[in-house]
Design brief:
With 170 residues, the protein is mainly alpha-helical. It has helices spanning 3-25, 28-44, 55-78, 83-90, 102-116, 120-131, 135-142, 146-163. Helix 7 crosses helix 8. The longest helix is centred in the middle third of the chain and has 24 residues, at 55-78. Belongs to the sigma-70 factor family. ECF subfamily. Residues 20-73 form the RNA polymerase sigma-70 region domain.
């Protein structure tokens, strides 16, 4: 493929890159910049494109990777802090940390109550698994099939998730 053919094909496909760029950036100006940067990288690296492969997919990959790299640069730049300000506290003898066990006590009480509320058939395999028993060990100890053990642990988790939904981060 000659340089002129490659450039013409890239130019034709560039129109379809704009909606995808807008989806990534959620800003019209940033989307135009992303498409422009993608086309520039594609033209500079045309020797890396293998004729007969999907040019559109290659361009989308360049665009996605460019977006990710730019995003990572922006987030790293905006999260820099003046470490000297924080290191002065590490060397001081004063302790600024206060622990409050009240919240943890309430959470643990709710978890214990939820586990106690489970049916015995589900609670026993769940607690054995929680303690560290393997599925096979639980199956042998309780004399039930391993599939039943897995199913009961799954149901116990689902039930606990429902009972402890108040602590969900979603």
């Amino acid at each position: 493929m000659t340089s002129v053919e490659f450039t013409n094909q890239v130019q034709k496909i560039s129109v379809s890159l704009r909606p995808a760029a807008l989806t990534l950036t959620r800003d019209a100006d940033d989307a135009r910049d992303l498409v422009q940067e993608t086309l520039l990288k594609a033209l500079l690296n045309k020797d890396k494109f293998k004729a007969g492969t999907n040019l559109k997919a290659w361009l989308y990959t360049i665009m996605r990777n460019t977006f990710i790299n730019n995003y990572n640069k922006v987030t790293k730049r905006s999260t820099k802090i003046d470490s000297a300000e924080y290191f002065q506290y590490f060397n001081s003898d004063e302790t600024f940390i206060t622990y409050n066990g009240g919240t943890a006590t309430f959470v643990m009480a709710d978890i214990s109550q939820a586990i106690d509320g489970l049916n015995e058939d589900f609670r026993t395999p769940f607690m054995m698994y929680y303690i560290g028993y393997k599925y096979l060990e639980i199956a042998e100890t309780l004399q039930i099939p391993i599939g039943t053990v897995k199913n009961r642990i799954h149901i116990a988790r689902k039930e606990l998730k429902k009972l402890l939904q108040v602590y969900s981060y979603n």
